[in-house]
Amino acid sequence: MSLVGVEGDLATGNVVVSMRMELLDAILEGAKRLFPRETILLLRGKKTKDTIVVTDLLVPPLANYGHGFAHIPIYMMPMDFSIVGTVHSHPSGNFNPSPTDLNHMFGRVLMIVAAPYKGEANVAAYNRNGDRIEFCVTET
User: Chain-wide mean pLDDT for the chain?
Assistant: First the structure.
């Protein structure tokens, strides 16, 4: 399968997604507060050849947070080319993206945080193919 407009490294999974610990803490805390509902956030950042650096989190406009789903109305998405993907929670503890997750993916990376939302071990990142890609946390 060919991915139009996606660089080879990201299409094959040879890319690293990184973010500061304070951003990961904010994601995990938000997921804990909404549990057992899912949460969803937009990831703003920069893409280089083999790295996606997440620099900010954005609350999507008019998002719905429910039991077993989180939804963003696409027509309300900001025209912001610095959005590199989304992160949402799986209260079930399952890290795997569903077909719906992949079909509604926005941006270059899909991150999933899974219960019990305790740290880096509860985070997974995926490309458009559903292939897991490396995730790391930086101090600064």
Answer: 86
